[in-house]
Amino acid sequence: MRLSPRLITHNWRLKLAALALAVLIWVLASAQQTTRQWITARVEPVVRDPDFTLAGQPDPATVRVQFRGRGRDLWELAINRPIVVLRVDTVGGRRAFVLENRMVRLPGGVSRAVVVEDIRPPVVRLELQPR
């Protein structure tokens, strides 16, 4: 059986509109599905001792965070990146800090139903020096 070009081009506007409508329905339905996604987040150290300061950037400066939530909320996170706030109370020298899920700060407008599941790598190294 041979495919005729007329079969494809006949009512092409209607066929194109049907395809666009199908894609739109698929996007709207997938936005409601719960899914998981890895998103890069910047590590932002906050040194709480005024006598010390950071001696460079955190190692690593960014980490990957796995989130679980609705597709549209995860799209929002991919656009407005979250940050990992690392509060530093112990000071002096080069130290390693374990990152915890509660340290991840979500940008405004993202649903509270979004859950942090994992952070990779789980350890960040900082070097602190006296002012």
Residue share in β-strands: 35-45%
Radius of gyration: 23 Å
Query: How many strand elements?
Result: 8
Give average pLDDT, whole number: 89
Q: What overall geometry do the principal axes of the alpha carbons give?
A: elongated
Spans of at least 5 consecutive residues whose pLDDT stays below 50 are: none
Order of strands across the main sheet: 6-4-1-3-7
SSE-based structural type? alpha+beta
Biggest sheet architecture: 5 strands, mixed
Order of helices and strands: HHEEEHEEEEE
From the N-terminal CA to the C-terminal CA, the straight-line distance is 81 Å
Descriptive notes:
With 131 residues, the protein is of the alpha+beta class. Helices cover 27% and strands 41% of the residues. The protein contains three helices and eight strands. It has helices at 5-9, 12-32, 71-79; strands at 34-47, 52-54, 62-70, 83-88, 93-98, 104-105, 115-120, 123-130. The strands form two sheets. The protein has a five-stranded mixed sheet with strand order 6-4-1-3-7. Strands 2-8-5 form a three-stranded antiparallel sheet, with no helix packed on it. The longest helix has 21 residues, at 12-32. The chain is elongated.
